Amino acid sequence: MKKSKVIVPPIKCQGIKTKIIPFIKEHVKRKKSGLWIEPFVGTGVVAFNIQPERAILNDKNQYIISFYQKIQNGEINSSIVRDFLEYHGSILSEKGNEYYIKMRNDFNSNGDPLYFLFLNRADFNGMIRFNRKGLFNVPFCKKPNRFSKAYITKICNQVENISQIISGKDWKFTCRPWQEIFNIATKDDYIYLDPPYIGRDTSYVGEWPEEEAIALSKYSHATSAKVCLSMWKENQFRKNTHLYDYWSDFYWHELEHFYHIGAKESNRHPMIEVLAIKQ
Ligand SMILES: C[S@@+](CC[C@H](N)C(=O)[O-])C[C@H]1O[C@@H](n2cnc3c(N)ncnc32)[C@H](O)[C@@H]1O
């Protein structure tokens, strides 16, 4: 696999694909003139590394979308991010959890994407989770000195890199139902799918019931565009039966990688990731 530097975005989320970017880049073969379409763009890490000229980047999470829209129109840049994180980071270092909760409450009433960035970079494991009322509810990472100078600089550099990548490109960041995004696609386009894990937990916004996952397979088969699905195949405990049941006619490229539970080296577990590509 050819190694090139992976662009890391300023937003984090569960299931972020940073580690498998070289694998994705190796297998994505697309028409350069076509649209790059991501109905579940998340942090944007895949698009930021593929760097197509034209793209529709969509997600249900309106805060991520408005964060990138504001970078695109210049309302958010690295110096605005620096001022914001320095100011609130210094109060966080004095007040700790109490201030994190204040920022979370403020965000839940103002919906400001800068507050979202602050929470995303100060919360437990960079998680994104909303309760049934749509309120962000991830706890503090418990590190009051989270926003050190070096950490702020790292985030600002990430913002700067992303704004340079977006600049001058025909990219649209949208927050629409994923089905509508499929309807835009034509035969020259490439749809990269990274939906959430199928879950039974109904207490959170953003959960992905099996019916949606099945509908996604139907849309993917019906579209004339090329489709590539990212999904886990198996770990030592479980097989992903949905992949076998609904995507078996796509070509599966497999990659084994390891994840850790806790800090111990012995808790290193293999996981097989698949890129299932429509032939
Ligand atoms: C696995 S993540 C995508 C990760 C992304 N590829 C990355 O590397 O950052 C799945 C994304 O789907 C979004 N999502 C969940 N349900 C959705 C829906 N019904 N429509 C659109 N996006 C949805 C979530 O907000 C989340 O960002």
Automatic annotation (TrEMBL):
Its EC number is 2.1.1.72. GO terms for molecular function: S-adenosyl-L-methionine binding; sequence-specific DNA binding; site-specific DNA-methyltransferase (adenine-specific) activity. It catalyses: a 2'-deoxyadenosine in DNA + S-adenosyl-L-methionine = an N(6)-methyl-2'-deoxyadenosine in DNA + S-adenosyl-L-homocysteine + H(+). Keywords: Methyltransferase, S-adenosyl-L-methionine, Transferase. It holds the Pfam family MethyltransfD12. GO terms for biological process: DNA restriction-modification system; methylation; mismatch repair. Belongs to the N(4)/N(6)-methyltransferase family. NCBIfam families: dam (TIGR00571). This is Site-specific DNA-methyltransferase (adenine-specific).
